[in-house]
């Protein structure tokens, strides 16, 4: 796709407008890609709004690496709740790590999420909120839930900037908006 033919989906969120590029994930199926990396204004506004909606009894935020880290950080600052990152690559310095496999819609291939042993105490016996930028298929959420259970914690809420796909499927998610899945009509 060249810049001249790139299609976009425009969203209004927390008083800001963003044009999200459409990306093919399967034949005849496209999704709008939200990339919050470097968009400090959007991240701060979304974090402030999500912070108002999160349960007050949580102990830890858990987010997957990479794109949702700025959101988790801003939410941590806004709420005073520490955050942990589920890494996508195991590093040699990560001791006593836990792992869970996931297939994300944007990568389309299996990945592993890793909870570093140094972060296990932030999850063990804690009330955890899962945080992501966009929840599409739920596979990343499922992997994060499994990591929390393996670490001995309890998931008390799941939050994202957007959900995507069937809105009914995400009724329990704390989200600021919903993105459609775009299908080519035949």
3D architecture notes:
With 186 residues, this protein is α/β, with parallel strands linked by helices. The protein has one domain: Rossmann fold (3-Layer(aba) Sandwich), CATH 3.40.50. Helix content is 20%, strand content 38%. The chain has helices at 40-53, 69-79, 139-151; strands at 8-13, 16-26, 29-32, 60-64, 83-86, 98-103, 110-115, 127-135, 154-164, 174-179, 182-183. The longest helix has 14 residues, at 40-53. The model has no long low-confidence stretch (mean pLDDT 91).
Termini Cα gap? 21 Å
Note the total helix count. Answer: 3
N-to-C SSE string, H for helix and E for strand:
EEEHEHEEEEHEEE
**Percentage of residues in helical conformation:** 10-25%
Radius of gyration: 17 Å
How many extended strands?
Answer: 11
Mean of all residue-level pLDDT scores: 91
User: What is the beta-strand fraction?
Assistant: 35-45%
Domains, number? 1
The CATH class designation is Alpha Beta
Name the assembly state: single chain
Give the biggest sheet.
5 strands, parallel
CATH architecture: 3-Layer(aba) Sandwich
